[in-house]
Design brief:
By secondary structure, this protein is an alpha+beta fold. 29% of the residues lie in helices and 33% in strands. The longest helix is centred in the first third of the chain and has 28 residues. The N terminus is likely disordered.
Length: 128
């Protein structure tokens, strides 16, 4: 197999393998819903939904990225993500982006993410 044919085969594999991942991400977001119980404690933060809503999210440099609009649950009722309203800093027109709970940590009284701006731009949009 020539280098050109190998390159084309690899490019095709990336496209084909990437498509299911994108669909899976969209399906998982569509399966999420807002948690209505403000007293529900969200692990790993050990904070209630009410405590988390409207908390600011910062990047590792301490710059504000946005604030928690909603805490989201999966089909089993377990908290799994946060819908963060992104500030104008990222030119995302105040869109809500879905951050999995493992993409955010509590640092004192602040929520922090290590995601870069370009990674945040690729997160799924929350459209409630």
């Amino acid at each position: 197999m020539s280098f050109r044919n190998l390159s084309c085969a690899l490019a095709a594999a990336v496209v084909l393998l990437g498509a299911p991942t994108l669909v899976l991400a969209q399906q998982s977001v569509s399966d999420l819903s807002e948690i209505e119980d403000d007293d529900l404690v969200v692990q790993p933060f050990n904070r209630t939904v009410d405590d988390l809503e409207d908390m600011d999210l910062e990047n590792a440099a301490g710059e504000e990225i946005g604030e928690v609009d909603e805490v989201l649950m999966d089909g089993t009722g377990q908290p799994v993500a946060l819908a963060i309203e992104i500030d104008d800093l990222l030119d995302l027109d105040d869109e809500d982006r879905v951050f999995r709970l493992d993409q955010v940590r509590l640092d004192g009284d602040d929520l922090v993410t290590d995601l870069s701006n370009s990674e945040i731009e690729t997160l799924p949009v929350w459209d409630d």
